[in-house]
């Protein structure tokens, strides 16, 4: 079934739009498995062990003649993938807008990432470099596919629908990622019963995230449709050159959109706080609260499933009270979360899990509503390019929070002070977002105003 023809009845158009929305949700479901299974749980510890197995007596490995500590291999791979995202994601968006081939590019980026993730099955023995390269490729491909995926939101949802549509996508992503993680944790914890070594169970779990990603990507590829005229006669090198030209034009254009820039800055700040709380929670739990790995895994799963409901809840609240107000309120909850984490008692898993539940309630909603709010500030036919900058703000600046955390830890020798230092991101982000004149930004972008912002 294609797009409804011009002049089709309104109910036919609405039905086709809802069908595309349902298909669009499943890309969140598909790719979230990579973050939950690979990034959040298995790859970091496993790749560090593989690198240690290949290290010399001093604990160093020597890729391309460099001397690198084995335990630094995974953090360096993450850093490299972030740097490449800063360079590649805006170009991916420009390429999508220039060629009109959003659907095809979504599939290409998704399957590069999915197959790279499947390739993690072959990372064993001392093949740490293979693991690092596959992770960089997969993470970069996921970022590029997310740029294209997010840019479909203005195409498939009317202005008043976007909060709900974005929230359902985020919620389904948390549900799908959590479901596969449960299955993989069963395999990992019972690997002896399945006749598998611990290493084999980890490699199967990571590869399963790639299979999951590839299989469920078929759903959005079957239901989503390109809107713009497709440039079918243009060669790939010519399209890339034109993409660079279009990107340069957009960079000049964004300077003339102060509201959009201010929102991006606000998002950069508060989302960096969100990402840092999530990434540092496990270290805080084990090092400061003296909790075991089982408690950390339980918290990860709790966040996944509570975030599903939290995203839907905040989406409903946005329809009633306005998107910006709900995002601002969620940032105040994040302030409370950070303050509460400072006061957690040691060896109290119940308190830690309660805090994880609170994080889950606001986590998905903060991200989903930020995405839908940003979609109103974008000029038509440049959505993918602007979402390229948005994804940079999401992932390319994730060094700011960890840097503040590390500095506080270095100066005070206290994990509690380090986690408390992150409150500055939510306070500054709140202040910046408070000053964003969203209706003005929507009008500057030439878009219709939804009933509530």
Structure overview:
The structure is a single chain. The protein is mainly α and 453 residues long. The protein is built from 17 helices and 2 strands. The protein has a two-stranded antiparallel sheet with strand order 1-2. The mean pLDDT is 86.
Care to give the gist of this entry?
77% of the residues lie in helices and 1% in strands. It is mainly alpha-helical and 453 residues long.
The secondary-structure class comes to: mainly alpha
User: Mind telling me the C-alpha Rg?
Assistant: 22 Å
What value does the average pLDDT take?
A: 86
Cross-sheet strand order for the largest sheet: 1-2
Strand content: under 5%
Helix segment count? 17
- Any low-confidence stretches, pLDDT <50, length ≥5? none
How would you describe the shape?
globular
Largest sheet: 2 strands, antiparallel
Give the helix proportion (percent range): over 70%
Distance between the termini: 33 Å
Number of strands: 2
Reading the helices and strands in chain order gives HEEHHHHHHHHHHHHHHHH
Give the helices and strands, then pairings.
Elements: H1 10-54, E1 60-61, E2 68-69, H2 73-99, H3 102-118, H4 128-151, H5 153-156, H6 162-189, H7 198-223, H8 236-254, H9 258-288, H10 293-321, H11 323-342, H12 349-375, H13 383-396, H14 400-412, H15 415-420, H16 423-434, H17 438-444
Antiparallel strand pairs: 1-2
Helix pairs in contact: 1-4, 1-6, 1-7, 2-4, 2-8, 2-13, 3-4, 3-7, 4-13, 6-7, 6-10, 6-12, 9-12, 9-13, 9-14, 9-16, 10-11, 10-12, 11-12, 11-16
């Amino acid at each position: 079934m294609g797009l409804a023809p011009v002049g089709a009845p309104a109910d036919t158009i609405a039905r086709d739009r809802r069908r595309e929305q349902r298909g669009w949700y499943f890309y969140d479901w598909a790719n979230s498995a990579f973050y939950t299974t690979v990034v959040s749980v298995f790859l970091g510890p496993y790749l560090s062990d593989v690198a240690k197995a290949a290290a010399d007596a001093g604990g160093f490995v020597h890729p391309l003649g460099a001397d690198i500590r084995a335990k630094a291999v995974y953090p360096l791979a993450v850093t490299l993938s972030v740097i490449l995202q800063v360079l590649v994601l805006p170009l991916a968006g420009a390429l999508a807008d220039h060629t009109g081939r959003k659907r095809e590019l979504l599939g290409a980026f998704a399957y590069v990432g999915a197959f790279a993730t499947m390739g993690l099955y072959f990372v064993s023995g001392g093949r740490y470099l293979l693991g690092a390269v596959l992770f960089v490729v997969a993470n970069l491909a996921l970022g590029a596919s997310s740029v294209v995926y997010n840019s479909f939101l203005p195409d498939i949802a009317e202005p008043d629908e976007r909060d709900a549509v974005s929230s359902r996508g985020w919620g389904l992503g948390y549900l799908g990622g959590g479901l596969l993680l449960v299955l993989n944790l069963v395999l990992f914890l019972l690997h002896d019963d399945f006749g598998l070594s611990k290493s084999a169970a980890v490699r199967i779990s990571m590869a399963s995230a790639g299979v999951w990603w590839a299989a469920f990507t078929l759903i959005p590829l079957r239901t989503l449709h390109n809107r713009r005229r497709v440039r079918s006669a243009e060669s790939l090198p010519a399209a890339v050159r034109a993409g660079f030209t279009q990107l340069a034009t957009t960079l000049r254009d964004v300077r003339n959109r102060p509201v959009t820039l201010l929102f991006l800055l606000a998002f950069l700040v508060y989302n960096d706080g969100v990402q840092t709380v999530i990434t540092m929670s496990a270290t805080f739990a084990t090092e400061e609260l003296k909790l075991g790995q089982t408690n950390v895994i339980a918290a990860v799963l709790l966040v996944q499933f509570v975030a599903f409901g939290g995203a839907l809840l905040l989406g409903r609240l946005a329809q009633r009270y306005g998107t910006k107000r709900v995002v601002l309120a969620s940032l105040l909850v994040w302030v409370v979360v950070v303050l509460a984490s400072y006061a957690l008692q040691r060896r109290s898993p119940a308190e830690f899990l309660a805090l994880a539940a609170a994080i889950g309630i606001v986590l998905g909603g903060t991200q989903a509503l930020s995405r839908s709010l940003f979609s109103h500030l974008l000029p038509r036919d440049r959505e993918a390019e602007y979402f390229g900058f948005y994804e940079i703000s999401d992932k390319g600046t994730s060094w700011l929070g960890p840097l503040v955390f590390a500095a506080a830890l270095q100066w005070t020798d206290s994990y509690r002070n380090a986690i408390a230092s992150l409150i500055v991101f939510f306070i500054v982000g709140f202040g910046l977002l408070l000053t964003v004149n969203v209706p003005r930004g929507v009008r500057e972008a030439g878009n219709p105003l939804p009933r509530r912002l």
